[in-house]
Every structure is written in structure tokens, then in C-alpha cells.
Amino acid sequence: MSDLVPIKLAQLVLRVVEAQGYDIDEFLASCDISFNPLDDDPKIPTHITATEYNRLYKSIIWLLQDECFGLHLKTKVPSGTFRMMCLCIIHCKNLGEAIARVDEFCRFCRNLSGMAPLQHTPLTMLDNGMVLNTLPNAILDNDHQAKPQSIVAVAASLHMWRRFCSWLIGKSLDVSEVHFKVGEPAKLNLLEDVFRCKIKFEQEFNGLCFDKHFLEAPIIHNEDSLNEFLKSAPYQLSVSHADETSIQTKMRAIVGNDFSQDFPSVETIATCLHMSVRTLRRRLKAEDTSYQEFKDTTRLNAARTYLNRPGLKINAVSALMGFDEPSAFHRAFKKWTRMTPGEYRQSLGNNKS
Known about the structure:
Blueprint: E1 4-6, H1 7-19, H2 24-30, E2 47-49, H3 50-64, H4 81-89, H5 95-112, E3 123-125, E4 130-135, H6 150-169, E5 175-179, H7 189-195, E6 198-200, E7 206-211, H8 223-232, H9 235-238, H10 247-255, H11 266-272, H12 277-286, H13 291-307, H14 314-320, H15 326-337, H16 341-348
Parallel strand pairs: 5-6
Antiparallel strand pairs: 1-2, 3-4, 4-7, 5-7
Helix pairs in contact: 1-3, 1-6, 1-7, 14-15
């Protein structure tokens, strides 16, 4: 991980630690970070390495024993919850469906914990063509005030949620407003630097406001790419739009998840990207690949995802992949992997043909 992460993101997550009363210098020493990003010192670097940020973030999760960054929902979110949530939504058709599934997953987890259900609607359609995607409200203290650390915890969670949604759809989720339930803090610089859009306080819910057309954006990933993502999270959610500039990511968003139809030609994809075929091929070469390699890899990942579902017969997978004859699918899969679909399933222990 040689990429750099803006120092403001390290500052944001460290504010969560600071607000809960931990010694920052002691904590940073345990993370092997040689300076304090919260110091008021003009010599502080503007970025840290992605490796350092990854170590910092995971150390905070371990310190708090809470994947939800202490959002005061009466119970901590144990390690592994995020992974299970991802597995529950990765096969959703589009972002709107994924957001609804996340809400269902959260309600299920609360029921398992014996907690009362939250009175919360994750998506609210607004009159101006926008949609408000909200988080459940923080638990209030006895004076009916949000606890002091909630604004940084909520800000960190909203930032990571926005980046995760962007990863799911393969393009930046352009947010027009960020809503906070608490009153306006004395200093706004950090929040303004992180979100770079209009920020509203004393709102009914914490959430993100964006154009409703994003709800129809297809989920471009599958279980294979999700597993790769989880290996390096939160790195993938922290680098500044690195993945969004990848031409292959933009191409995956165009292809979508329906492989029963003809795969888009290089000319079609180039037109969608508003560039010539020559430019597209040059961009792919810069990423050390080609259109044919992209096509084969994309179809192979989809085929593997289908074959990982024991309930789907191989002939059904062939149809889902757009092959007129199962024999053609067998030949293509063997060309990609040097295994037949049946041999691949046997290697997984799923001998359902």
C-alpha cells in the first residue's frame, strides 16, 4: 500500500478516540505512528501512508471493540459484523436495494440482541429530486442531548459509508448535503475538509443527501471482488478516489451484473465513456490490461460467483452467463481456468451439477 491518505481522515478518526477519554499520544505509540496528527503544528505532514492509516483505523476498532465507532446504540458492534453485512448485500441489484438490505440486516441484529427496534427509515425522497439516506439516531443522555463525541463518531461513519457506497457502484457518490442531529460545533474546518459540501446541523437525523438517480446505480462487485476488498479495508475506503479513477472500474459500472445479454463491445463502452476506442485501449494498456482481458476477467468473476451457489445447476449458470449452449460455457470456462465448471465446483466441495 504505497498510496497516501489525507491527514484530515486520520484526524477525524482520532477525534473519536480523544472524545472517549483515551490518551492520544499513548495510543499513537501503540500504533507505531511517530507524530500526533491532532497537534497544532504547521509542520505536520498533509498525508500519511495508506499502511499507517490502515493500522490506525484497525487499532481504533480493537480499542473501542466496536466496528460502529461508538455511535451510542446501547450495544457495541462486534468484529466481523461489517463483513457479514457486505455478504448480505453484495448480490443486490442496485444501491437502493443495498441500502434497504442494510437496514434489514441492522434490524435483524438488534432482534438477536434482544433490543427494541429503531424507529428509522433509511431513505426519504425529497421534493427536489434528491434523497436523504440517514443513520439511526444516537442514543441520548438523561438530558436528551447527544453525547459530546457523537458528532465525530457520526462524521467518521458517514464518511466511510459514503466511500463504501461509491465502491459498490464504481463511481463517486456525489453528496450535496450532510446532516447532523447535533448543534453546530465551534470549529467546522475538519468537517468541511472531509465532506466538501453543504453541512446542516440540528436536523432530525444524521445522513447524506444525494440525487435519487444514484439509487438505480448497479452494484458492480461480486463475492470475489468483495473478498479482495475486505482484505484491505479500510484502505479501500480511505484513499482519495483512487479506485474511482480506474478505467476498469468505470467499465464495470457500464457492464453491470446482467450477463445474460451480449457483453458490451469495446465501441459501446468507449461511447459510454465519451472517448475514442483508441483512447480506451490506451487507458487499458496503462493499467496493464486490454479489453479482451477485462471482458474475460469480468465474465469469469461472474461465473465463479454463480458456481459458488450450490442451488444453481451448471446449465442454469450457463444461461445466466448468456451462453446458448452449456457446452459453449464449458469450453469458455475451461479456457479461463483450465478446469470445467464441474471440476471447479468439486474444488470448492460443491458438487451440484
